[in-house]
Specification:
This protein is of the alpha/beta class. Helices cover 15% and strands 38% of the residues. Strands 1, 2, 3, 4, 5, 6, 7 and 8 form an eight-stranded mixed beta sheet that branches. Helix 1 (54-67) packs parallel to helix 2 (149-160).
Length: 173
Amino acid sequence: MRLLMLILLLGCPYLQAQKCKTYPSKDPATFKTYSWEPGRSFRKAGWVDNPPSTPIVQREVDEELQRRGYQRVESGGAMLASFFGSEGTGMQVDTNVDAYYFGPMPTTPIPTTSRKYTTGTLAIALVDPAKKPIFLAICKDTIEKESELEKKIAKAAEKSFKKFPAAQGAVTK
């Protein structure tokens, strides 16, 4: 089971935080530590464990959690983090309907253009050791160039954890 789900372009192109949920039965502030579980990505070739974007995602999420007073441990954390990513293709179609095209000849073609783009989804989920949910964020965006990936993952992590509470007794940065 994948716990902190972040959907990436290399693992996830969509990166604007769109949905974030903290589960009321578990107050994240009562936890002080977290550890990482392996992430996964679904790409055109199928499932990939620990995709190439893993270090980027972990670094950005670590920064957001540590800023709030949570401590990363190698294993046995009070919260478990993992990520899941997917990528796909979208298409934008634009048609220019102008009175000129409906002129004297009804068979005049209407100009239409289309554009393909890469899409991705990043889901961030924190669970307790019993695999009960603590927090989930689902992020979506498009990426025109691979060079945008790192910046968009950083922005997604920042938006996802914007309202995430600090650990109890933590002095936040």
